[in-house]
Amino acid sequence: MSSLQVHALRLGPGAELLSSLRDFVDQRRLRAPFVLTCVGSVTMATLRLANATADNVNEVLELSGRFEIVSLVGTLNPEPHLHVSLSDSRGRTVGGHVLGNLRVFTTAEVVIGEARSCCSPETWTRRPGSKSWWCRRGARRRKPTETPENHE
After folding, report:
1. Kind plus residue range of the DSSP H or E element containing 23
2. For the PPC domain, which residue ranges apply (predicted)?
3. Is the entire prediction scored with pTM above 0.90?
4. Of 23, 30, 39, nearest to 7 (Cα)?
5. Quick one: which of 38, 103, 111, 146 is 20 to 30 A from 94 by CA?
């Protein structure tokens, strides 16, 4: 049996994409889930842009209108970390880190991969003195309320 499991999710008009993905992952108790692909459209989005400076650490872009989902990538647990690219009616594209408020316009069809044999983020730990994370095979899974910062 393959260690990769594939799940499909179709959301209808008005659904909020980020919270729907969280619910899907939680209800099915998926291990190491990630977005394989997504097609669809949204009417709203809240994105954090990648232009942080010392004076501006979290510029947020609030979008409203009709946008095609050009790309959606990222991991889905323990907390979702998603990046999206959206194009408007003239083909102009914008992208960033998803903060939420991705309101489905017509549909959003998401294919989710579950890497069952991989080390899921719940077992990641930090090496002493390092900013990097590593997988400790056989490590206990953290409770959903634990964060990497307080995980021993």
Report:
1. helix 17-28
2. 1-136
3. no
4. 30
5. 111
